[in-house]
Amino acid sequence: MAADVRAVDQGRELYAQYCESCHGRDMVTTSSLVFDLRKFPRTDAERFRSSVLNGKGGMPAWRDTLSDADVASLWAYVNSEPAQR
After folding, report:
1. Distances in Å between the alpha carbon of 32 and those of 10, 23, 35, 37?
2. Range of 8's domain?
3. Are 9 and 72 in contact (CB under 8 A)?
4. pTM here?
5. Taking Cα atoms as reference points, which of 1, 12, 4, 2 lies closest to residue 74?
6. Cα distance between residue 59 and residue 20, in whole Å
7. Total structural domains within the chain
8. What are the residues whose beta carbons fall under 8 Å from the beta carbon of 77, sequence distance 6 or more?
9. Comparison of pLDDT for 58 and 49, the residue scoring more
């Protein structure tokens, strides 16, 4: 459980640094141009990983910036209960 909390916290920090400017604070955006991450299917970790690392549509690829551990932490944050409000 402590590892999960740590991953969510790390994911929250990474999200603020790399994702918030487009996807909005706490994943709340008023733009219809970006995906609402609160609605990302919780069972599709591979699709999330691929989108983050390779980019998708107007989203840049983060492959040269984020590690696999970083992406796992972002996934933990996106799937955390507070983030899913």
Report:
1. 27, 10, 7, 12
2. 2-84
3. no
4. 0.88
5. 12
6. 12
7. 1
8. 7, 8, 10, 11, 12, 14, 15, 83
9. 49
The label of the residue with tokens 């040269």 reads 64
Cβ distance 38 to 85 under 8 Å?
yes
Tokens of 23: 């996807």
What span, in angstroms and rounded, lies between the C-alpha atoms of 50 and 61?
A: 9
The three-class DSSP label of residue 56 is: strand
- 8-54: pLDDT as tens digits: 999 999 999 999 999 999 898 888 888 899 889 999 999 999 999 99
Check which CATH number belongs to the domain holding 50 and give it: 1.10.760.10
Say which residue the tokens 């609605």 belong to: 39
